[in-house]
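ok new one. same drill as before - structure tokens go in, u give me an amino acid for every spot. 138 of them this time. try not to just spam alanines like last time pls lmao
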């Protein structure tokens, strides 16, 4: 049976810029890299999010895939944070803009939104003890 989400993967336009965003602004740690087994060229960078959870960044994306409400498929990442305001301050301090300031959502959780350098929407969420998500796992 499935025991968790091991990783999510995205292809990025500029690895250096993407690594800066995910490590400096969001605080992920660069865990390791995997070279292309056929060419030896850089291929994938793994970022550690939490124990057993990674974000995979693939090199050399060239085509935009802009998000729209009407698209079927991927919508956004949501990363749980322990302090929504501290996280927003860290992102700003790294030189990135916040798309939507912290606010309480319909599920009672606090959320803020940012977009990564590749146009990927990211929700930052502070779980409220009274939210349906928190109550589900009690």
């Amino acid at each position: 049976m499935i025991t968790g989400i091991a990783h999510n993967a995205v292809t990025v336009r500029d690895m250096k810029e993407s690594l800066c965003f995910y490590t400096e602004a969001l605080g992920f740690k660069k865990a390791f890299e995997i070279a292309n087994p056929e060419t030896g060229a850089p291929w994938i960078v793994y970022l550690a999010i939490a124990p057993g959870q990674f974000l995979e960044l693939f090199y050399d994306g060239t085509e935009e895939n802009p998000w729209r409400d009407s698209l079927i498929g991927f919508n956004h990442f949501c990363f749980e944070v322990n302090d929504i305001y501290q996280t927003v301050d860290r992102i700003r301090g790294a030189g990135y803009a916040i798309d939507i300031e912290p606010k309480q959502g319909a599920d009672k959780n606090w959320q803020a939104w940012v977009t990564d350098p590749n146009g990927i929407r990211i929700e930052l969420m502070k779980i409220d003890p009274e939210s349906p998500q928190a109550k589900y796992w009690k």
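The chain has a mean pLDDT of 95. and btw The beta strands are 7-11, 29-35, 42-50, 53-58, 77-80, 100-104, 110-115, 121-126.
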